[in-house]
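Fig. S4 source data, part A: sequence.
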Amino acid sequence: MDKYIGFDIDSKKVSVCVFESGKKEVYATIGPDIGSMKKFLLSQKSAGYQLHLAYEVSGCSGYIHDQLCEYVDRIAVANPTKTTWIYRTAKKTDRIDARKLAVLLYMGELPTVHVPDKEVRQWRQMILHRRNIVKDVCRVKNMIRAVLKSAGYFKAGLSGGWWKKANILWMHQVSTGCELWQMQLGNLLSQYEFLKTQLNRVTDYLDNYLKTKPGAVLFMSIPGIGPRTAEAVLAYTDGVERFRDSKRYCSYFGVVPKLDQSGDNRRVGHITKHGPSVVRWLLCEAAWKSVQKSPSLKQFYERVMNGDAKRKKIAIVAVSRKLLSIMRAMLSTGELFNEKLVLENHEEINKAA
């Protein structure tokens, strides 16, 4: 016998619905802490029963999964953006949401998300943390340049780039003074140096961790793919066997076009942008490098662009999707990047067209 349990979790309470086939639903309200959830699940466990638990994805859904997996026979973490379309009601309460999760789980129609293990979740968090630090570094750099321009410094004091060591030392010398803009400049330079220290520390950690992943060697054999792109794709792939084909793989990362079809009308729109944005961002950056370094990918880029400069962005997104398809194939076969094989694949497509 089976019990299907829906948890609607918020910061103050958890609304619970227990659904059994042929019986009336049982509702309860418990505390939001893990101890209360464990206690309730233990109270539902009896001889001959299997417990199936569902709750919506959130920032702590991975932690909850790790804590409760031993207390139930199955855990499903629901995607709330999709459950709304499957199960719509005129009213919305916490009890109704809990019942919705339990019923959809019983029907086998609950749209779920993959929950990686704790190590992979922390790896992903570190990748996102580095991306945020990079954004902060760029923001502070722009603020430093703006302050210097407001004081009449339109060029760096010495030859070379603004951020070479000699010019940073020059900026520190400029910031020594009693004017307000000099105080602001000094504070911004301190922020810049602090962020650079953080960035170097996080980058060193990620570089060392990436060396333990065999897929990194495969990915970095592709021209233009560096450690940051390789680690992001590997972290969010979390097992290529989860994806049946390259279409599903590319769809997971949101680089497939939206499709609107009705009768004979078929409209292909912009990419869906589902999934991790950090991977799309890094892939697009890497795609520009790959087009410069790989003859086969450059040929593919030019074929998609078709001589129209306005199609550059479309073509580079197509290259990003091509890179993902190549990466999936490499993870499946364990082979390094083969320039000749990609060229032959393009020639076969051209002949078929």
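Fig. S4 source data, part B ends here. The first strand starts at residue 2 and ends at 9.
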